[in-house]
Amino acid sequence: MTDLIMCQSCGMPLTDESRGTEADGSPSADYCSFCYQNGSFTQDLTMHEMLEINLQYIDQWNESIDTPMTVDEARAMLETVMPTWKRWQS
């Protein structure tokens, strides 16, 4: 089993198909295509804004995990884990 690699901006699982691109067109090692294209972030967001965007997809997220979370549980988890992601470290 391989470790899940996640976008270091939004947390989406990264696959060869979902990776963003660097300025030279090569696949990004860290970010998905929704967050990062041509070597730049696609949106100028704060971590809190990204967290709120993620929560809009709670139903889809719950379909892919064993123990569904409420919005409040997901928010608490994201508030803990997102600051460890590359984009949000400062």
Automatic annotation (TrEMBL):
Cross-referenced Pfam families: Zn_ribbon_2
Cross-referenced InterPro entries: Zn_ribbon_dom_put
- The Putative zinc ribbon domain covers 6-89
Name-wise, this protein is Transcriptional regulator
